[in-house]
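Suppose a colleague, Dr. K., hands you the sequence of a protein chain of 300 amino acids and asks what its three-dimensional shape might be. Before reaching for any lab equipment, you can write down a predicted structure in token form. Begin with the sequence itself:
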Amino acid sequence: MKYVLLLSIFLIALPILAAQTPAAQHQAAAQERTETPPPMVVRYYDRGAKDARHAYKFELIKKILEATRPEFGDYTIIPFGEEPSAKRQALLITEGKILNLLWASPGTVIARADVITVPIDILRGLLGYRVCLINPANFPDSDKLQSLSQLQIAQGLNWADVEIYKHNDIHPKQAPTFEALFEMLAFKRYECLPLGADEVMYTWRDQKNKFPFLAVEPDVLIYYDYPIYLHISKQFPELAQRVEVGLKKLQRNGEFDRLFKQHHAADIAQLHLNQRKLFCLKSPYLPEQGQCEKPLTFPQ
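The predicted structure, expressed as tokens, is then:
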């Protein structure tokens, strides 16, 4: 009976001993290397049709991810169907559970969150060129404008730009949502909604049927230095590496320039930026020295 018990124990232990041999360990390691890793998860806010003005950014991110498949493998995008305030976005990207990729200008609350920044301006300076959407029924004579303080400006609630205007002694009215800005303009509660040259024409086309009065102001240009970088949660360092590798790859092969022109060249040409009356603002997010001192180079 004693020998039978010893034999049973030996037979049970035999597979465990075999698994610990060098040959078995090598085979297990090889199998582990050949297993397909899970897709890299990418999370940014995207409310579908409501965020169509961000189409360029969404397409650029997807091209970055596609270009880096050989190095980093598959990916899956899980959009967040809300547009939180900037402060809320900063908290969410720090946690990395709901958002792990955002775009923002340096110095803003999002850029100061616990993120890894890829310091390449994905809009080539274009977002700093601001053109007014207006209700012509209450917009003043642009020839008589000597200062932006003469204009009643509006922005979305807690947009990072609000601090830029306040820094220049301009105090915009704020709307709780992007959509509410147009309702306010319909009731003439302000005179100018300054939007980036990358989105103003799209927004005008998108809102024109609902708000027939809406017009793109033809003479005024507001400018402030406002580069836009991609920021990745520090909880996802491999994603940050992937974004940087992919963006540089698109720059080298010319795809970055092609995509930028595809989305923006026609609208930029319509805006005639270099023929407008310029009002330059200084940004509190950037060093004071040099702002509003150098000639502007208009993106094409």
